[in-house]
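re: ur question from yesterday

yeah so i grabbed the chain u mentioned. its 132 aa long if i counted rite. heres the sequnce exactly as i have it in my notes:
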Amino acid sequence: MHGKLSESDIHQLRTALGQREQRLRYLVQLARQASPSAALRSADNEVFGCEARVWLKAVWLADKLQLACDSESRTVLGLLQLLSSALQGASRDQVRQFDLEAYFHALGLADLITSSRRNGLRHVVQAIQASA
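ran it thru and got these structure tokens back, copy pasting raw so excuse formatting
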């Protein structure tokens, strides 16, 4: 349900996110730490249906997902980094069973994510799951 992450991993992530007030700041910090390749921002990699522009590349190596994500929005990029932490290196079955809503709920982010961002992230997850 949470990709390759265990309940212990989820607990650690939720602790790192901190209290409600700190969570958006943490997402921006995650975005600053990301180092997506400029080549990722191509029309072939763009995911449509997102509020902010998002680019995604999902490749399978030895039946494990290799994921690269980018966005113009720091908050969205931070959310994509959290998504990547759950799915990077996941098996096809783990990717197919991944539940975005349950993941964000478990992290305590469900109430911080607007419906338009959530819809956009669903499009990202659907694109990843389609590759599985």
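noticed a couple things. The CA atoms of residues 24 and 66 lie 26 Å apart. also The two ends are 15 Å apart (CA to CA).
anyway ttyl
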